[in-house]
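hey so i finally got around to running the thing on that chain from the lab meeting. sorry it took forever, my laptop kept dying and i had to restart like 3 times. anyway pasting the input first so we r on the same page abt which one it is
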Amino acid sequence: MQRPPWLAVWTTLIASVVLVSLLSTWVAPARQAALDQTAQDLQLKLLWLEDEPIQEALIPPDFVIITRDQYQTAYETVQQQRLDLEKKRTTATDKDLKAQLTRQSTELQEQQQALGIKLGILWAETKQPAKSLKFWSPQAQNVLGKLYGPPQRPDPTSERWIKQNLTGWYQLEALEQLDQRQGRSLAAIQLLKKSQSEDALNRWLGILGTRLVTGLLGLLVLGRELALWIQRKRTLTTQTVPWSIEDGIWVFSAWLTGFFVVPFVAFPVLRPLIEVQFPAPEVALAVLVILVKSGDIAVGMGALWYRILRFNLTTLPLHLRVKDLPWVLGGYVASVPLVTIAALISQQLVGTGGGGNQLLTSIMESKDLLTQGLLLFTVVILAPVFEEILFRGVLFSSLTKIMSSFNAMIFSGFVFGAIHMSMAELLPLWVLGILLAYCYAQTRNLLVPILIHLIFNALSFWGLLLLGGAN
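ok and heres what got predicted. didnt touch it at all, straight out
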């Protein structure tokens, strides 16, 4: 019996790890849900602009009730996830697994309590304070229950507790309620509300305006491209590369091996050293991310050099050509409606699960300029350049050796989505991967998808920073 080729075995093993990791995120809380909640918290501040006509155009009159109902769903989802986790923990026999499940259960409990505080305030703001009590912990009831329930003397530590446990709209609403109960002037809180509402308006218009303009331009670009296909002025020709499909698969599999192995080795070794050098947790995390990302990039580029580039340095077409600029701009604006529609479909299919990229939360929560700069470099420079070299320059081009360019676009796009290991992001990133491969196939210039990817990530980064202003 003939032994299977080692490359096939290696590739199958790596592909299995990717798929198992991807499927395991199906029940993980979706990062998109957290982004939606942050966006709602930002919009809530616009309610303070009740005398401004623009407020009516940006949020519906029953927005508090809409937000409350969505938080109710999120609260019940986290509660059910925690109950399911507790069942697994009680039946687990392995000590390490039990410890891991305990940590996850604690994280979900903290998440549930944070959601409960906000949900209780939303119930109270919609004139149903009695329903708030079921969502508040005893400590929260001791503070907020005295503010939103029957008139009684607030706890002396109320102000400190509110500032420690609440942010943004929720914090100022609770502080205003406290001032009213204590008979203090509301002028300072109302001035702070006005300042925060104006800031929220600028942030929201920045997010909304960018999406609207690029979305409309993207639809026009897509419509024009469709018309060119109907008129037979566009074709997909076969991509020719000077290496074999085996070379391409070898390089890609080597990088994927590094993608999984490098973090496994680097995190436990580097984390203690970095935390000593950078005591601030968010800075330490950003430094660790950039070092680990650099490590797996080094593995991928080393494999690419060893197997392909050392034989021909001009193998990957990187050209600075003015004629390709319309493809860069057109490709980016076309990605906005495509990815947005794909994300909406994904939300319906996956629901409240699907996981997501931890960096999204880190970017939103970061207030430190050094952290933001490190994450910006990782997300906007390192990731687009390296991923386009590997996914479009190597994987897509190699696949055209054994299948049509159309099928290679579909398959390489799926791998691009799957490698991010999030069921919630699989479809949007799949669509983005197809678009990037299409632009590369049309221009034969790897710099085009690199720049599209760079702009996409940069403006997404900017949007997340604006969302971070919800707190």
